[in-house]
Description:
Layout lengths: L1 H17 L6 E9 L8 E9 L5 E8 L2 E12 L2 E7 L2 E3 L4 E4 L5 E7 L8 E8 L4 E9 L13
Parallel strand pairs: 1-10
Antiparallel strand pairs: 1-2, 2-7, 2-8, 3-6, 3-9, 4-5, 4-8, 9-10
Amino acid sequence: MTRLLTAFGLVVGLVFAMQPVMASVDAEEFWLRESIPGQPNGAGFGKLVNHGNEDKVLIGASIAIAEDVEIHRHVREGEQMRMEAMDALIIPAGSEVTLQPGGYHLMLMSLTSPLKVGDVHDLVLIFSDGDVIELKVPVKALVSGSHRGHGGH
C-alpha cells in the first residue's frame, strides 16, 4: 500500500510539474498609432500588468513592419519634452505600467510601410527572463479621444 501511495504521489507530482506555467504578466489593450505622413517611425501603446511576486523586465520587442523596436519614454527638460530610449522597462511585482502617448511607449524604428488604420500586426514583447508575449495589435487613428496631443512623435 505504501508503494502504491508513493507511486501515486510521484505521478501527481509529475502531472503538476508538466503543467504550463502561466505568464505572470498580461499585455492589455495594445495598439499602434497610425503613421504620420512622412515619418519613418511608429509608436505602440498598451498596459503591462504583473500578477507575479517578482519584478518583470521588458527588454525589447519585435514586429515585422519595423527594422527595430525600442523602448522609449518622454522626459521634461525645462519647458521642453523630449524622447529618450531606455534599455529596459521594469514592471514591478503586483503592479502595472501603462505605455501611452506622452509617456512610456514602444518606438517602431524604420517602418517598412506605413501603419494603416484597421490593419493588425503581430507584436512580440521580450522579457529579460526569456519570457515572450505574442500579440495581435490593431492600428488605430492618429487622433481619437484620449490619444490627442501626441504631436509629431
